[in-house]
User: Which sequence fits this backbone?
């Protein structure tokens, strides 16, 4: 019984590894998880400050925007493994990539709402009248 299940499972895996669409999806996911892992590792350590965290997260969100535009223009250079494949992603798969990147951006913005921290990095770059305190009260300067 186990050997029958095991051989069916093994055959299914081999079929997947011969499917170019499956390999394309696997390569894309590997690239995305690699980028997220790199971002996550950059947040770790005693020297990472809140300002750096916000800056790195903002840069990654902007990078997602750039990646979406690139995929729409059929440029895949930012996905290292995906570009090593012999054939380019189909139009349908490219649309799925853009949709996925859009969802990822939405989730990041949901879990990490935009915080204006420019005043921490460079206090003179921000007009104090634009800073909100508490439930919408502004400083009286």
Assistant:
């Amino acid at each position: 019984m186990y050997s029958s299940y095991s051989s069916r499972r093994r055959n299914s895996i081999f079929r997947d590894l011969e499917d170019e669409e499956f390999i394309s999806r696997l390569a894309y996911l590997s690239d995305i998880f690699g980028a997220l892992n790199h971002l996550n590792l950059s947040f770790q350590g005693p020297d990472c400050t809140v300002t750096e965290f916000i800056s790195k997260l903002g840069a990654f969100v902007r990078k997602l925007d750039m990646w979406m535009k690139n995929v729409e223009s059929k440029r895949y250079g930012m996905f290292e493994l995906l570009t090593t494949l012999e054939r380019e992603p189909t139009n349908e798969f490219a649309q799925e990539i853009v949709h996925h990147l859009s969802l990822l951006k939405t989730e990041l913005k949901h879990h990490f709402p935009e915080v204006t921290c420019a005043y921490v990095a460079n206090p003179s770059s921000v007009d104090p009248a634009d800073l909100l305190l508490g439930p919408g009260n502004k400083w009286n300067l």
